[in-house]
């Protein structure tokens, strides 16, 4: 007589294995790409006389019905069919009968999943590019309003030299432009179709991989079937590109957090993107940029996870790569909402010009201008000019003044070598003049900032 406990254990183990082995609960995200790939594959099979035209039409109509059922919520996903490919094919066969079993001719789930995933990555690469471009446009628009708004430029988070706020915003525009270009480059490199590679060595059927590549919007089929089914570089590139963009989002988030603090008060964030403390009603916390900063670690983890999965895999396909999708889906949703909400934060924040201008009078931001003047006008070695400037900074400190606020008498008494200095030095130490003197290409002058803005406006139109 069979042991009932053993039977229960066997059933439990089988269910546990099904749950462990299945990917349907996350790869169902690829349903539209899976159906799109199957329709293209069926069209190619009919053109090659591998299936009949009637069978192809039946397959296509059946797949479109499956698509409709999924999008309406009518379709029921189940662990009985372990992945999206089997779930779609099973429902297709239920709808159209035997013809549904022909759709998998001359392909494997290995090349099918790689095709679906590549299509997904390419689509998301394009949509994220557009979001980045929108964010760049917001930076450019904000910069256009602040090409004369003086603020302290910093190194080591210490006041360094006067710049304008528009120039600072254009630094971020350039940063995110590189992100945009990385996504563009990845799209070009990865826009090749794995479909038809089959399990890992191609197929004996007379297929036309160039046709399926064309139907799916790829440039051409991939060159090597073994590499095709084991490749996840396209996913890694997406994760790297997202991680780099999130790093840039985190950097500006950090500055927004600093700038809206009482110590800076350079900006005021919209109440929509800040919260009050649960216990201190006077506080306004920059929760949104803090979350943006925190979510960066999340996408880093997804990149490291997939790199670790891939690092020891022999050719060709291995089940390990089933773990490639969840992190990508998570990173994509994270970057999409992060770009969207950062764009809104930047659009709605208020810039406190007066506080920025007052901050420029802390830290002797025009000290370098005196040294440069002495080199250019007095023919001094820079190191000598450096130490003379240091003496004048000490003089300003003793008067509780910023160096930009000194009059000619105070400057001349600041160091022996300055006793007969020309009165024009006063204008050189002026904050606005100092900012505009940095007129080299890419510099912070209003003229150069406007040139950068104009360049970006043309680039955004392209």
UniProtKB/TrEMBL annotation:
InterPro entries: Arg_succ_lyase_C, Argininosuccinate_lyase, Fumarase/histidase_N, Fumarate_lyase_fam, Fumarate_lyase_N, L-Aspartase-like. One of its GO terms (cellular component) is cytosol. Pathway: Amino-acid biosynthesis; L-arginine biosynthesis; L-arginine from L-ornithine and carbamoyl phosphate: step 3/3. Gene3D superfamilies: Fumarase/aspartase (C-terminal domain), Fumarase/aspartase (Central domain), Fumarase/aspartase (N-terminal domain). It is found in: Cytoplasm. Residues 11-301 form the Fumarate lyase N-terminal domain. CDD domains: Argininosuccinate_lyase (cd01359). It comes from the Bacteria. Its EC number is 4.3.2.1. GO terms for molecular function: argininosuccinate lyase activity. Keywords: Amino-acid biosynthesis, Arginine biosynthesis, Cytoplasm, Lyase. The keyword Transmembrane does not apply. Residues 364-436 form the Argininosuccinate lyase C-terminal domain. It holds the Pfam family ASL_C2. One of its GO terms (biological process) is L-arginine biosynthetic process via ornithine. Belongs to the lyase 1 family. Argininosuccinate lyase subfamily. This is Argininosuccinate lyase. The gene is argH.
